[in-house]
Sequence to fold (436 residues):
Amino acid sequence: MSRSESERLRPQRWTARFAIMAAFTAVVLFVLVAGLRGIALVAVVVVGTAVTGAALWWALTRRGPARVCAMVLAVVAPVAVIWLGLTSGLLWLLVTCLALGALAATAGWKALAMDTACRAQPVTAAPRPERPFLIMNPRSGGGKVERFGLKEKAEAAGARIALLDPQRQVDVAALARQAVADGADLLGVAGGDGTQALVAGIAAEHDIPFLVVPAGTRNHFALDLGLDRDDPAAALGALTDGVELRVDLGRIGDRVFVNNASFGAYAAVVRSDAYRDDKVRTTLDMFPDVLTHRAGPRLTVRAPGVTVEAPQAALVSNNPYRVGDLAAPGRRDRLDGGSLGLVCVKVDSAAEAAVLLRGGRASGLTVVTAPEVTVDADAPRIDVGLDGEALSLPTPVRCTIRPGALRVRVPRVRPGVPRARPRLDWQRIGLLALAR
Fold:
């Protein structure tokens, strides 16, 4: 190793050593001071976590008095653990060890991040569009179009605007196709992800740029493009000073999705007519049957090398989501990876629900990437939530991905996608700490 290389790696090695020392100190301090009481307290925390997971499962799969008792238990178990920790006389020790553990984890993540290459999604220079066409939904996001003055600002940038009428049903796809026929050289949407997906498919079909204005409620697609969801008007900067990137599109039959397609319990609940009137009550009323397979079809999910029988839920995403990163849940690192993400949850008992709290290591949780996913069932049709839109599709449902199918125009200056936090691999941290 050259001297310059050694100097470059020195901060990483010392960060890894600090992480090991902080973790070692926390463990030794806890064992020496707490002794058997500490071991008993750890056992109580483990048991309390298991009981909480089981109680939540019972609360979701039971009705009446049994559900009430389960909900009480789900609250009492963690409260009891906290109370025992406070009255054990070890509170100061727990706080100290938790602080050391947090320092160790932070240093470990930092050392691993230095060891991980980060490939930025490539962008290309883009000329200013001559005939941009934007579709705006005034009801999306509680009225963000009007609140942020999106129509006026887009028109000032030279765009032609179609403002949807909330009083009548509008064929958004037909509107976008007519705009292309009239010579539009850019399509855009200020609305939710479902509308974004409809118009994005048409833009990809004609290979013209697509502009995302995050004027919906959640706007996960905009978030993973690195746009500012708190300032939808900032996305309009792409009309005058933008760059272009290519992203993948998921596909089911003749429909595309920019985020995900959900199957199973959630999709069945969303398809219910009662869901719009009372979401919580409808969910609690339907879950006992759909989660225990007393109602609804039994799914079979297949990907290359993987088959999951009878999962309660399956999520197929346009590129994989981060799993296990509590700092940024529901985020995708890239949208140009060329693969689908698949997350399946299968829980058949309270014990399995408790084990599921372990996350990625739980047997009931399947997380893979694949170029294609097929969802079949013992029924001719199944419910599907496609970018938040409730559909019923014939089985089997085949999900594929179209790499680089969509040209997306984004502002040159934007927040960007935060770097993913690496998995906390203590073996790798140890090797970095011992490196010479």
User: Anything to note?
Assistant: Residues 158 and 218 are 27 Å apart (CA to CA). The chain has a mean pLDDT of 86. The chain has twelve helices and 17 strands. Residues 3-61 form the longest helix (59 residues).
